[in-house]
């Protein structure tokens, strides 16, 4: 087993040395790939945090817009209902072209269409500035 002329040192085994070199190379490769994965993971976590912050900002903007638009719409609807009952009694059920284009009616239509657009946007990250327009 041991060579008596070499002073009790085991004989070198080339197969063992080769396996140890392969093991060292594999360890270095895995260490490099682990570092790359950690770098990718860090980047993705930062991106997710940015998306989370943007969603929060958009939700806050939506709440603010809702608080801004809903009360005037309710007021205009109450006013319109009150005026429509007066008009029915005045005109005995006939409609007037002036009533269809009154300023409060146009504002109500614009606010309704804006609110409808906001309701259709169920995804808060898809929110964008909405331009009021009158739909017929």
Overall description:
Keywords: Transcription, Transcription regulation. It comes from Aspergillus hiratsukae. The chain has helices at residues 14-91, 97-100, 103-120. It is mainly alpha-helical and 136 residues long. It is rod-shaped, with a radius of gyration of 37 Å. The chain starts with 13 loop residues before the first helix and ends in a 16-residue tail after the last helix. Residues 91-95 and 125-136 have low confidence and may be disordered.
List the helices and strands and how they pair.
Layout: H1 14-91, H2 97-100, H3 103-120
Domain Transcriptional repressor Tup1 N-terminal: 15-69
Keywords: Transcription, Transcription regulation
Pfam family, one: Tup_N
Keywords:
disordered C terminus; mainly alpha; about 140 residues; transcription regulation; Transcriptional repressor Tup1 N-terminal domain-containing protein; Tscrpt_rep_Tup1_N; transcription
Concise overview:
By secondary structure, this protein is mostly helical. The chain has helices at residues 14-91, 97-100, 103-120. The chain is built from three helices and no strands.
Described by the principal axes of the CA atoms, the overall outline is rod-shaped
* Rg computed from alpha carbons, rounded to a whole number of angstroms: 37 Å
Encode the helix/strand succession as letters.
HHH
Total helices: the number is 3
Relative strand content: under 5%
Helix content: over 70%
Distance between the termini: 101 Å
Number of strands: 0
Question: Could you report the average pLDDT, rounded to the nearest whole number?
Answer: 75
Structural class: mainly alpha
Unreliable stretches covering 5 or more consecutive residues:
91-95, 125-136
């Amino acid at each position: 087993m041991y060579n008596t002329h070499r002073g009790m040192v085991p004989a070198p085994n080339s197969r063992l040395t080769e396996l140890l070199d392969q093991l060292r190379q594999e360890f270095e490769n895995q260490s490099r790939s682990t570092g790359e994965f950690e770098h990718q993971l860090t980047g993705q976590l930062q991106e997710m945090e940015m998306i989370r912050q943007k969603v929060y900002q958009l939700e806050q903007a939506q709440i603010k817009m809702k608080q801004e638009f809903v009360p005037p719409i309710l007021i205009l609807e109450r006013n319109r209902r009150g005026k429509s009952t007066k008009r029915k009694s005045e005109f005995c059920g006939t409609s007037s072209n002036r009533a269809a284009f009154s300023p409060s009616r146009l504002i109500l239509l614009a606010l309704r269409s804006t609110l409808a657009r906001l309701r259709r946007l169920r995804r808060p990250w898809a929110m964008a500035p909405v331009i009021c327009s009158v739909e017929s």
